[in-house]
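Input record, target 12 of the design panel.
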């Protein structure tokens, strides 16, 4: 954020995004293992984890909704004001993080030991067919979510929606996402092994429909209504996805491999996000945003169905339903 505030060229913007990516990856790897280790072992650990995680994530979405509206209004006054407020809240977050109670480890690991653990984690992922399939699916879905998040704002700007109104729309979507997060367990109980497939297909078709209504030239009010409706469905599914992905990975977890799996997931998700971003950027060089959304939406729907066929018996199982090969740490 500081780099963005003082950036004078494109290189500094790229550097700021690089720093942000490193920080976000560290946060993603650390937060779930910290919560997991704080919950006592037992057969209900997965459900307890999901409930705490969903409540925390839903509150995060509600706060995000409020700040998005405020940021939208402040951006109209001066684009730098939201950046300054972000830096202030990051300082508050840093102060709070220093007050966390450390989870005591039996032995403090060296850098070399930590690197070897990550390497062992990837070997474990490659040797576990179900875990490998799950992480590939989660990575693909995260790349899709990130690309659609960029496309959705670009489409609204393309049809001349003001920054203030975009902020209001995004705030409503964050509230929807927060509400859906607490319903993730019920969603999983209803759809079981097909949960991720349903989420992925609905998001992909939704983005195709949002682009399609602009392509066919629908009247402005009905067009906006359809676009916002598809965005609402996407954010509902995104909220469920954010909780279920951690629960599914938790089915493989033992204390020895906890951080390794999250590190592997973070790397794989980043690779898919990079690929999706590259494809999405290339499409925008040869066609307009609405056509790109249609192409990407249909293509990702087909890819999702192929994933579903491949992973029909590989994801969404209970811990006791996995084989020893899938849940026991190597080395």
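The sequence produced for target 12 reads:
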């Amino acid at each position: 954020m500081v780099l963005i505030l003082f950036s004078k060229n494109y290189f500094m913007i790229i550097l700021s995004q690089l720093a942000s990516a490193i920080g976000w990856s560290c946060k993603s790897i650390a937060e779930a293992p910290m919560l997991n280790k704080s919950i006592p072992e037992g057969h209900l650990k997965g459900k307890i984890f999901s409930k705490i995680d969903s409540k925390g994530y839903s509150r995060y979405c509600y706060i995000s909704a409020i700040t998005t509206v405020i940021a939208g209004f402040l951006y109209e006054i001066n684009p730098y004001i939201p950046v300054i407020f972000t830096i202030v809240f990051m300082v508050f977050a840093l102060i709070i993080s220093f007050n966390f109670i450390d989870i005591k480890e039996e032995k403090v690991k060296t850098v070399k030991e930590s690197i070897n653990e990550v390497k062992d984690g990837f070997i474990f992922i490659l040797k576990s067919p179900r875990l490998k399939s799950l992480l590939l699916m989660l990575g693909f879905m995260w790349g899709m979510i990130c690309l659609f998040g960029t496309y959705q704002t670009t489409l609204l700007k393309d049809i001349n929606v003001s920054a203030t109104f975009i902020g209001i729309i995004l705030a409503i979507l964050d509230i929807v996402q927060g509400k859906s997060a607490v319903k993730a367990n019920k969603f999983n109980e209803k759809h079981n092994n097909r949960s991720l497939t349903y989420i992925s297909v609905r998001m992909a078709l939704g983005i195709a429909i949002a682009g399609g209504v602009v392509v066919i030239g629908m009247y402005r009010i009905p067009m906006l209504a359809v676009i916002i409706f598809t965005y609402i469905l996407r954010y509902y599914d995104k909220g469920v996805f954010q909780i279920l992905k951690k629960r599914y990975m938790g089915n493989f977890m033992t204390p020895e491999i906890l951080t390794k799996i999250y590190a592997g997931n973070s790397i794989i998700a980043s690779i898919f996000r990079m690929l999706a971003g590259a494809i999405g950027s290339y499409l925008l060089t040869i066609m307009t945003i609405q056509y790109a959304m249609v192409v990407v939406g249909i293509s990702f729907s087909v890819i999702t169905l192929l994933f579903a066929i491949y992973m029909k018996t590989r994801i969404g199982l209970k811990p006791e339903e996995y084989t020893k090969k899938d849940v026991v740490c190597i080395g």
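Residues 327-331 have pLDDT under 50 and may be disordered.
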